[in-house]
Amino acid sequence: MESRLLCCPGCGGPITLHSPATIFVNCLFCKNTLLFDKDWKVFGKVAELPPEITPLQVGTNGTFLNEVLTIIGRRRMRWTDGYWTEWYASFSKGKGAWIAEAQGLWMIAYPVETEMSRGEFEALTVASSVKAAGKQFAVNDIKIAKCLGSEGELPVISSPNEELKSIDASNTNGDFLSLESGQDEHGKSRVSAYVGRYVAFGDFHFKNLRHLDGW
């Protein structure tokens, strides 16, 4: 995993970027969020993330399916019935994936191409059939979530208090699909798709974890 150095356009502080997919990053020095749109620019201020009980942290590394990974960013999400955290992992071969942590369950999901329009996305209802990455899924959950804040570097814009629509689907093979509304770095509406499955915490062989009493 090759890294590159960025000078913060807000304060000039050094920021090390670990993923070529990064378009959104937090500066540790001036607490600005930065967005890449042809060039890096100041997007806003970093929101203070609420405390949470988790062993992961930015900088945690491990292996999954014999490939080395490093956690380089996270975002905290809230919806009407609770919270969840999404960690962004950069792999040694250049790909990236989201590791979601919610109510003691762990999931890993990889970005996949989708030609779904915003209109098609909005028309989905529970039990709707949807296809992605050559697999068939049935929608089982639709919710409106709010981003509480982010840390590190991410491949998506994570503006504090931004609301987005999240649609989850699954199939009988144990795969799940996550669809999300949002905007790209140019401010255009887009639908993002991620396909993955539930996993056990031990499958990641994590190192450099945050110390938690009793963990």
Task: Outline the structure in words.
It contains 1 helix and 15 strands, in the order ββββββββββαβββββ. With 215 residues, it is mainly β. The strands form 2 sheets. An 8-stranded antiparallel β-barrel has the order 7-8-9-10-15-14-13-12. Strand 1 and strand 2 (14-17) form a beta hairpin. The longest helix has 6 residues, at 118-123. The chain is globular. It starts with a strand and ends in a 16-residue tail after the last strand. The mean pLDDT is 90.
Number of strands: 15
Shape: globular
Uncertain ranges: none
Derived structural class: mainly beta
Oligomer: single chain
Q: What is the residue-mean pLDDT, rounded to a whole number? A: 90
Number of domains: 1
Please list the strands of the largest sheet in the order they lie side by side. Answer: 7-8-9-10-15-14-13-12
H/I helix tally: 1
Cα separation of the termini: 29 Å
Profile the largest sheet: 8 strands, antiparallel, barrel
Order of helices and strands: EEEEEEEEEEHEEEEE
Portion of residues in beta strands equals over 45%
Helical content class: under 10%
Rg (CA only): 17 Å
